TrEMBL record:
Belongs to the class I-like SAM-binding methyltransferase superfamily. rRNA adenine N(6)-methyltransferase family. Residues 185-204 are annotated as: Disordered. Keywords: Methyltransferase, RNA-binding, rRNA processing, S-adenosyl-L-methionine, Transferase. PROSITE patterns: SAM_RNA_A_N6_MT. It comes from Triticum turgidum subsp. durum. One of its GO terms (cellular component) is nucleolus. This is rRNA adenine N(6)-methyltransferase.
Length: 251
């Protein structure tokens, strides 16, 4: 047996196939994504988390705690709740309850670029109870997508629907380890709604047709009136494929 002493977030992990851990809860998110980006990928992890974090990991569409953390972790793995561990199992009792969760990485990973995926779900979960139609009408979102669209066109890198989508590479997944800071336990719906929808004056500067293009894609998949809080992994993958086929990219 090899014992490694050090900060698990900073040290290079060796090959392992099973991870069993009782962790400090403040590293839940970075550790989860560090494990999921580790290669070769492990077989199974059984980890105790703070109850609310655990419930976010396993939350399904329609559950109150369903969020970006849920869709990102579930894109990469199957997660199941194994056991509740109440605070009174400890002396002295901590302030929070715990749960033990099993994480089994998907093999193979879904055929999607994680950068693209993350770009899409960031927009969709910015306000998970708003309709996608209303989220994608925001000036900030349209400007970002149009900028990406023009860049891709000028570089002639727009994906040809016949040649297929980019695939998720191990390097791509490794990005996960660096994007965990805002996958916290706060609900983004509590944020101030400071985004402007594009109004008529914006139409004058030529963005109207791009907005129509985006709305057309949403309507094509019957997404305009839907809300992220109710959409499954398959829905998001389908939506991403519709956008990519139309030359709209999120990274
Ligand atoms: C919840 S305790 C679990 C202790 C022991 N494994 C057990 O099950 O009784 C978490 C342990 O992780 C250690 N720890 C905290 N941050 C760490 C980090 N970044 N890397 C490695 N260990 C860490 C703490 O010092 C503490 O001993």
């Amino acid at each position: 047996m090899q014992v490694i002493q050090g900060d698990v977030l900073k040290c290079d992990l060796p090959y392992f196939d099973i991870c069993v851990a009782n962790i400090p809860y403040q590293i839940s998110s970075p550790l989860t994504f560090k494990l999921l980006s580790h290669r070769p990928i492990f077989r199974c992890a059984v980890i105790m988390f703070q109850r609310e974090f655990a419930m976010r990991l396993v939350a399904q569409p329609g559950d109150t705690l369903y969020c970006r953390l849920s869709v990102n972790v579930q894109l990469l793995s199957r997660v199941s709740h194994l056991l509740k561990v109440g605070r009174n199992n400890f002396r002295p009792p901590p302030k929070v309850d715990s749960s033990v969760v099993r994480i089994e990485p998907r093999k193979p990973l879904p055929p999607v670029s994680f950068k693209e995926w993350d770009g899409l779900v960031r927009i969709c979960f910015n306000r998970k109870n708003k309709t996608l139609g209303s989220l994608f009408k925001q000036k900030r979102v349209l400007e970002l997508l149009e900028k990406n669209y023009k860049t891709m066109q000028s570089l002639q890198l727009a994906q040809d629907p016949e040649t297929g989508e980019e695939k998720m590479s191990p390097d791509d997944v490794a990005l996960l380890a660096n994007m965990v800071e805002d996958l916290s336990m706060e609900t983004s719906d509590e944020k101030e709604d400071d985004d402007m929808e594009m109004d008529d004056s914006d139409a004058a500067d030529g963005r109207a047709s791009f907005k129509e293009k985006i709305m057309g894609i949403l309507q094509q998949g019957d997404f305009a009136e839907k809300r992220s809080s109710k959409l499954s992994q398959v829905d998001f993958l389908y939506l991403l494929s519709l956008f990519n086929k139309a030359g709209i990219h999120f990274s």
